[in-house]
From TrEMBL:
MF-aspect GO terms: 4 iron, 4 sulfur cluster binding; adenylyl-sulfate reductase (thioredoxin) activity; metal ion binding; phosphoadenylyl-sulfate reductase (thioredoxin) activity
Subcellular location: Cytoplasm
Protein name: Adenosine 5'-phosphosulfate reductase
Source organism of this protein record: Pseudanabaena frigida
Gene label: cysH
Catalytic activity: [thioredoxin]-disulfide + sulfite + AMP + 2 H(+) = adenosine 5'-phosphosulfate + [thioredoxin]-dithiol
Any one biological process term the GO annotation gives: sulfate assimilation, phosphoadenylyl sulfate reduction by phosphoadenylyl-sulfate reductase (thioredoxin)
Pathway membership, UniProt: Sulfur metabolism; hydrogen sulfide biosynthesis; sulfite from sulfate
GO cellular component: cytoplasm
Length: 244
């Protein structure tokens, strides 16, 4: 059976299921599976759901070295609330970061799209490749209504770049459902969400948004055309707009 056939069969099995049912099925059927978490609102919901299904579930995060203090605070709160969680914190290769910032400056990403892509590649894409290596499936907190780019995404799909399954349990959830879950279950969340940051990435590349702005308008705002998350890029560092 091919991976695509397996994924088609998983997609049929999980059609119409709740996020908890999707997670329960996936944690039972994929032996090497992990949640990619940047500790945004959707990610902490998934962490809480996963920890209730399996307390030692595997979660990884990318510490780019440029995160906000509030992000480290929520990571610490999650570690405290779910002590058995296997939280893997991935760092970029030190030598690559040292070379990049000594050649191009600490805030090189503001100077050109090429520089920003280089920074995202070194701080996110390469560590993400190491984190997903050897997995059968990875889980994301993507939701379909976040941007038009994500409208065609499904609960279970093939990640063609990594040749593994990609699971999006919250794909059909609204922002309101996410926050209802956080409040009802007393889930720790990033304090920046209370300051109009719907999407939180690296500190120098993320800002609060104004009422009526697109949810992702706070990312890389100085580039009007590239606002897809650095996590959802191809293995050679290109940003993917069609799918997350
Ligand atoms: S989001 Fe900004 S600081 Fe973070 S890796 Fe990308 S360019 Fe670098």
């Amino acid at each position: 059976m091919t991976l695509q056939t397996d994924i088609n069969s998983a997609a049929a099995e999980l059609k119409g299921k709740t996020p908890q049912e999707v997670l329960t099925w996936c944690l039972g059927n994929y032996s090497k599976i992990a949640l990619a978490s940047s500790f945004g609102a959707e990610d902490v919901v998934l962490i809480d759901m996963m920890a209730k299904i399996r307390s030692d579930a595997h979660v990884f995060t990318l510490d780019t070295g440029r995160l906000n203090a509030e992000t480290y605070e929520v990571i610490a709160k999650v570690q405290q609330k779910y002590p058995q969680l296997q939280l893997q914190i991935m760092f970029p290769q030190a030598e690559a970061v040292e070379q990049m910032v000594s050649e191009k400056g600490i805030n090189l990403f503001y100077d050109s799209v090429e520089n920003r892509k280089q920074c995202c590649y070194i701080r996110k894409v390469e560590p993400l490749s190491r984190a997903t290596k050897g997995l059968d499936a990875w889980i994301t907190g993507l939701r379909r209504d976040q941007t038009a780019n994500r409208s065609t995404m499904e609960t279970v799909e093939l990640d063609g770049d990594r040749n593994i399954a990609k699971i999006n349990p919250l794909i059909d959830w609204s922002n309101e459902q996410v926050w209802e879950y956080i409040r009802a279950n007393d889930v720790p969340y990033n304090a920046l969400h209370d300051q109009n940051f719907p999407s939180i990435g690296c500190a120098p590349c993320t800002r609060a948004i104004q009422p009526g702005e697109d949810l992702r308008a706070g990312r890389w705002w100085w580039e009007m055309s590239n606002q897809e998350c650095g996590l959802h890029v191809t293995s050679d560092g290109r940003l993917v707009r069609a799918k997350g």
